[in-house]
Amino acid sequence: MRIVILILLTLIPSVFGQINFEEHFQGFPGTMVIYNEKSGSSVVFNEKRAATRFSPFSTYKIPNSIIGLETEVISDVDQVIQWEGKKYLPKEWWPRSWSRDHSLRTALKYSVFPFYRHLTLQVGDKKMKHYLATFDYGNQDISSGLDEFWVSGSLKISALEQIAFLRKFYHGKLEVSPKSLKLVKNMLVQESKESYVLSAKTGGGYLDENWTQAFGWYVGYVEKEDNVYYFAMNISGQNFTKLQKPRIEITKNVLRALGIISQKH
Questions:
Q1: Residue 94 forms part of a structural domain
Q2: Which CATH number goes with the domain that contains 25?
Q3: 148/12: higher pLDDT
Q4: Which of 72, 88, 95, 222 gets the most CB atoms within 10 Å of its CB?
Q5: Is the pTM of this model over 0.70?
Q6: In terms of pLDDT, which residue wins out, 265 or 255?
């Protein structure tokens, strides 16, 4: 897919005004891509990093949810799957919300890692490879382990590729049923305002085994009037806890500065 890059400077003028990305990124190394569906153009902060592949972490729960529904491993978004506490023993860093039974709806909301490990094993290696190839999702590599390849594993995707996937997802071009797409779209809605609807998914963790390279994603889209604005951003740091809020705050501040979402009240 062709994405037209307008200007690749720290200070990026656009039809919305001017925006200083470095100011918004608060010193975090990172990148952000925003694609304007109506004009077919993009603004990109840090072009090199935007094209660099990283682990998708929990942003993979978007395609993973679609695949779970499409393969009928999950029959409905509210079907409850029993937590396999003996198989997936809680870790110190796990949120309390993970250690219980979940439906797809609550598992996506709370980004429940053990739920999606179970789902992926049920889908199986062959079908998972098939859908990743059909979706043209990142490098399509699941060799590091079927129930964890998307978390600091072999699967990698860039911010630019996240945008490409989100566009196909939004426009129903993933060769899956409209029903599966609609169900997942509904679960991704984060804000529904009078003037816009924001749908998104976070993702993040550590890129290394020693937990010294923290990483955070925020990807999604804004439906506004007769247009859709797709966004994909990621940032890095030493402590993942310190990236959790900023990845969302930075994204929203940029979207506000560009006039895509409304200002804080």
A1: yes
A2: 3.40.710.10
A3: 148
A4: 222
A5: yes
A6: 255
Q: What is the mean pLDDT of the chain?
A: 90
Residue 264 lies in a domain: no
How many domains is the chain built from? 1
Q: Just list the catalytic residues.
A: 58
Q: For residue 44, what are the domain limits? A: 4-257
pLDDT at site 18: 63
157-182 pLDDT, tens digit each: 999 999 999 999 999 999 999 999 99
Q: Tell me if 265 is assigned to some domain.
A: no
Q: Does some domain include residue 200?
A: yes
Give me the DSSP letters along the chain. ---EE---SSEEEETTEEEEHHHHTTT--EEEEEEETTTTEEEEESHHHHTS-B--GGGGHHHHHHHHHHTTSSSSTT-EE---TTTSPPPTTS-GGGSS-EEHHHHHHTT-HHHHHHHHHHH-HHHHHHHHHHHT-TT---TT-TTTTTSSSS--B-HHHHHHHHHHHHTT-SSS-HHHHHHHHHHHEEEE-SS-EEEEEEEEEESSTTS--EEEEEEEEEEETTEEEEEEEEEEES-THHHHHHHHHHHHHHHHHTTSSPPP-
Instruction: Indicate whether 195 pLDDT > 60.
Output: yes
